[in-house]
């Protein structure tokens, strides 16, 4: 308020100087300012000079106090703005996750939701009807939860700096051959880079611990850590099915199977007897002990 009053006083003074009454004379106002006679030196070097000097002193004192005060407050202003932008981004991300209207067409989405249509309200996971583009077959697939997604990729696939970088790319590009569509506008999807950033910011606020208890069985560990992609009982989802002895056929050697679970898949690198890595399979060696991995592998080979 004080600053505003000072600025108002300065503006009023400047307006008074600019629009003060002109010397009397019949034709003075008709003469262009550039052609009017200059004011005498007695006026310029006395009254005018004193007035200009006084205003200069006032403004110098004002800025001598205002600029340091502004400089001292600026870091806090920036922090406040960053917090505000972050809060707004998180709010938008939650809306985009469950948005009812398609951003490009303006039409309602199929079930009135975006990400939540498959991953469930609150990102707790869900199911989705998936039509295989190669075979045309329709099946219900288990869709992974997103409340532990950052923990699942705490050690990201090779070529990625961190979990967020990998998750962003999956959202932008989708997963060809699965029910995960392309969302990034750069790849033909409906969401801009900022909108995907907003969704990631919101997801980071809802992350939960995904630690496995020390006495959990192989089946318990599978249901907690693996079923979100491979489906309940290994029926398949965004990850391949594991039933009917498929894992024994893929990994005749148990040690090779355990090493794959421990190290994860690498894009373009073959594994097992006929698998090809996509990078979607995370490395569980940093999350599970060797004993827990052995228990999970034993359970998968029994399906």
Q: Could you give a quick summary of the protein structure above?
A:
The chain is mainly alpha-helical.
Notes on the structure:
The chain has 303 residues and is mostly helical. 49% of the residues lie in helices and 5% in strands. The chain has ten helices and four strands, in the order αααββααααααββα. It has helices at 2-18, 41-97, 116-119, 149-152, 163-173, 193-205, 218-230, 246-250, 254-263, 290-302, and strands spanning 126-131, 138-143, 270-271, 275-276. A two-stranded antiparallel ribbon has the order 1-2. Strands 3-4 form a two-stranded antiparallel sheet. A hairpin with a 6-residue loop joins strand 1 and strand 2 (138-143). Helix 2 (41-97) crosses helix 6. The longest helix is centred in the first third of the chain and has 57 residues, at 41-97. It is elongated, with a radius of gyration of 34 Å. The N and C termini lie far apart (74 Å). The mean pLDDT is 83.
